[in-house]
Amino acid sequence: MHELVIRRSVSFPDPLRVGRYKSNPDLGPRLLFFSGGTALNGISRALKSYSFNSVHLVTPFDSGGSSQALRKAFDMPAIGDLRSRLMALADESVLGHPEVFELFTHRFKKSVSKRALTSELETMVAGTHPLVKAIERPMRTLIMHQLGVFQASKPSRFDLRGASIGNLILAGGYLNQQKELEPIIFLVSKLVGVQGIVRAIVDGNLHLGADLEDGRSVIGQHLLTGKETAPIESPIANLYLSKSPLERSPVSTKLSKRNKKLITSADLICYPPGSFYSSVLANILPEGVGKAIASRDVPKVFVPSLGDDPEAMGLSVAQKVQILLRYLKKDAGTDISDDQLLNLVLLDAGEDTSARDLEDLAKLGIPAVALDLVSRPSAPYYDPHQVCEALLSLT
């Protein structure tokens, strides 16, 4: 097979390309996102209008919320962000399985007694709970089985209050598949009709660690985001993966051949909005990610988050770009040119800092363009369809 690289001018948005993709999303392009958390979920839902072929490599390093309870109970990777992205990409049309979607997005109430929740879980395992009973066989049987594995394996003190049923099903499937994530993610993708591909960046039980500029080390994603604990008070000097959740124990892990193939077959690679360190940079830490990105000659786009990011400690867009490139080159090699790893930054034209960012990025030699990407200037959120159409115009 021969590969030919063609350069062309781009209009934002490109009505011809956008219209073509919208008329037949089955044949839409393979946009690949490195992300975690929920920041990309709105864009993911909108993307289903244009392409059923997007790829989402998600971090399994979360250490907060209900994911943390499951990690402690079963010594497993975090699955909350994976479940969230699967649901964002699920087929919500009448041709999909809305009853499965409803079960996966259901959470046990926090105000109910532990005994009542244990009883409710038992009815789900038995198939008599209304949410489970509404699902047709054989999907119902598969779901009941995964929940049964979770029920039989959970510690007696496991607290079900606020737990996501989708997370419990994934945990049961993980345990049932000899502690492998990919088989159960594949199964759930089929159950809810995921219109795209969702995978963990690595199938390993690892944790995020950060060395701060003040000399301290912090282990645990939830201690970096500023959402469940007070924000860190010193900038991050070094991000790494740790074997232990309790002490600094840096470890290397390799990108799988299957995930490498997804990167090297992408039509566009995006470093999307999200927590800069724990969502975006965390995904490029595994060995082989930078090399795979550099080997693919397609648009590589950074869409920085809007608003405050407690992890980023006031970093400008240009500073984020420099840090992103530094981490990518740790794997790809310092001899790799910047444009092999990143060749466009998309900014919102309404941001007060966009003019300064454009100037700073120009000094770095990084192409950037400012577009109208926010539908409501008063809210620091991207309009999902406008971001999708900007990215699709590049393919």
Automatic annotation (TrEMBL):
SUPFAM superfamilies, A to Z: CofD-like
Classification via InterPro entries: CofD, CofD-like_dom_sf, CofD-rel_GAK
Name this protein carries in UniProt: GAK system CofD-like protein
